[in-house]
Specification:
Layout: E1 2-6, E2 9-18, E3 27-36, E4 39-43, E5 48-50, H1 53-71
Antiparallel strand pairs: 1-2, 2-3, 3-4, 3-5
Protein name: Transposase
């Protein structure tokens, strides 16, 4: 999980490990969350699946920043 301050909100990028099978390579589901003052403002569903944890986190952060730009 990675977070940053953005336009008065705290935005979060999540990488959720997907365990599909023992012989399958690890994959990560991306999601994003927006909070302010410790209160949940908005959360995404699954934004996509990625081979790298960092890519999933960055996708979640990108979604959260875009949401703030559009609705915040």
């Amino acid at each position: 999980m990675e977070s940053e301050s953005y336009s008065g909100y705290t935005v979060w990028g999540h990488a959720i490990l997907q365990e599909e099978g023992i012989l399958q390579p690890e994959r990560y589901a991306a999601s994003g969350t927006i909070t302010t003052g410790g209160k949940l403002i908005e959360a995404s569903g699954v934004l996509g699946h990625f081979d790298r944890e960092e890519d999933a986190q960055h996708t979640g952060l990108d979604w959260a920043r875009a949401w703030v730009d559009a609705y915040g």
